[in-house]
Write a structure and sequence with these properties.
Order of helices and strands: HEEH
Number of helices: 2
Structural class: alpha+beta
Mean pLDDT: 73
Number of strands: 2
Low-confidence stretches: none
Strand order of the largest sheet: 1-2
Largest sheet: 2 strands, antiparallel
Shape: extended
Amino acid sequence: MIQTLAAAAAAIMLLSAASAAQAASDAAPAAKAAEAPAPGKAKPSKDKVVCRVETPVGSRVGKRVCMTLAERERQEEDAVKGFGEMQRVVNTTFSKGD
């Protein structure tokens, strides 16, 4: 009985992983096509101001945030660097075997 349940659970996990992988591979070409600029259109200028509605954590009310593309790219790079540094600190702090 337990072996049957374990086998069924393993089969479900394999099927869900396979369907997730299939969905990701189907979405990848569409995402690349969406990112590529149209042949007749140039890339937007880094000085162009773009506004987005961002919803803060713990809120349902969105806030309009406007910044240039260069500022947005710099903000995203800073976030990635900060997250990497945070992971590095956590890994070195807790991997000492204390």
